[in-house]
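Backbone geometry:
***
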Amino acid sequence: MSVRYLLDTHVAVWAAVGDPRLKKGTRKRLLDPANTLFLSAVSLQEIAIKFAQPNRGDPLPFSATEALRIFTEMGCAFVDIRPVHAAGVEDLPALHADPFDRLLLAQARCEGLTLLTADTKLLAYGHGVIAA
């Protein structure tokens, strides 16, 4: 059975660099040719912002420009940010304050995608979100 996964930003980065935090089952999902991997434009924006601030948190291994090339080579399809996605954020309970993550969840729900994440706050939303 094929699944359409929207990768949370950290999951996409972990997959690109072979990070051991990515679970074995998640690696299997990502490598299954029956599945379709999606990356949001909001993830590229998040990478661009965080790459420019290397002293904040976990430093990113590549820029947004490099990420675009890497994720294209990984075979990811891209999801643009559309007005319906932005409006969809208002329907989400306030379980998570991060605007990037809230927009990713709204996109997943609007587009019928399964959000793949290791973020426990996103996992709390339940339906349509699975642990990476």
About this structure: Strands lie at 4-7, 36-40, 77-79, 114-117, 129-131. The radius of gyration is 14 Å. The mean pLDDT is 94.
